[in-house]
Predict the structure.
Amino acid sequence: MELIAFYFFAGLAVAAALFILFTRNLMYAAFGLFMSLLGVAALYVFAMADFLAVAQIMIYVGGVLVLLVFGIMLTQASRSGANYVRVENGNLPVRLTVAGVMFVLLLKVLFSADFALSGPVESQKSTLKQLGMHLMTTHLLPFEIIAVLLLAVLTGTGYMAYNRIRIR
Amino acid sequence: MNTIPVTHFLVVGAALFSIGLAVASTKKNAIGVLLGLELMLNAVNINLVAFSRHDPHLMQGQLFALFVLVVAVCEIAIALAIVLRVFDHYKTIDPDKVNRLQG
């Protein structure tokens, strides 16, 4: 039963990703990314990462996608008029071949690898408490560094977007 | 929940990574390239989370995935700001046409 649900969400993620690859409409591609990210969030649930699944939905679907749609809107030449954000796919056969070779190579590595997994899957409970404990104890330094990084990104993007309006 | 083997996650991750690679190299639009980048980062995160399942006490995979998530968001914000500037300067965001440095 779980396996069927897993296949459903994995298929959803992969199908939406393929839709991004083949669609010509950039707006539809953004919505395809939305479906794909939702599928990935469901896969996180199957991997017992409940907090990451919720964070994925909140950050990607709530934040990044809105940002991307804003980016699409701001970078369209107004002359096109129609509500259709066309984007060409350049040199598709060659790059599909490259990606396909990459996929086959990855599969070959995956199925020939012998992972030394430390133990069987256990705990069914939420990982939220453990994650918080680790962030505040063993992983405190990266946590602080990433806070500084977020601050730098906030000021940097704000500065770039602000100056852009003034130069015009 | 114990029934899904780790290989299933890895195959999905590999598929998403390859599709992301194809998207990032095919789209003739900088934002399309960013969509592909996001797909690739998500594929990597699936692998990290899948392996973290076998490490329920330390959970280094999930912590790493969390940091990857935040860095991906930073990257997309900066990249979109750069794309906006490029659009102002060149009036296009086709990566093939932004070639003023080309000899």
In short: Helices of chain B lie at 6-26, 30-52, 60-90.
